[in-house]
Amino acid sequence: xxxxxxxxxxxxxxxxxxxxxxxxxxxxxxxxxxxxxxxxxxxxxxxxxxxxxxxxxxxxxxxxxxxxxxxxxxxxxxxxxxxxxxxxxxxxxxxxxxxxxxxxxxxxxxxxxxxxxxxxxxxxxxxxxxxxxxxxxxxxxx
Length: 142
Description:
Elements: E1 15-19, H1 25-37, E2 53-57, H2 68-71, E3 73-77, E4 84-88, H3 89-95, H4 97-107, H5 113-119, E5 122-124, E6 138-140
Parallel strand pairs: 1-2, 1-6, 2-5
Antiparallel strand pairs: 3-4
Helix pairs in contact: 1-4, 3-4
C-alpha cells in the first residue's frame, strides 16, 4: 500500500462559520488554524494547501483569560528609525477587533510561503453579519 499525498488540483475546499462570541481567543485560533491547514481531514498533507475556508463573526466579543486584556500589546514598525509604536489589546478591540483574531491565527500557522496563501482563507468580521452567505458556510460549535 502506498502513502496517499494530496495534490493541489484534487482539493475541494469547504466553508466553515465560527461564532466567536464568548469563546477564548487561543482555543478559537487553534481550531481555525487547524481547519485552514486541513488538519481535520484524513487527506492532510503538510506541503499542500488542502484546508478549508473559515468565516469568523462577532470578533469583538472574543474573551481572553487572566490579565491579558490589560497586559497584551501589539508592536508596529513603520520602517523608519524610531518608528516603533505599541497599541494595547483594548485599543485594538475598539478600532480593529478583526486584527486580534487574525494575528492569533497567523501565529499558529507555519512560518513559510504556504502559510501566506493559507491566511487568505480566513475571513474575520467584527459583527454578526458576513458577506459569504452565497458560499453556504457550515456552522461549527466549539
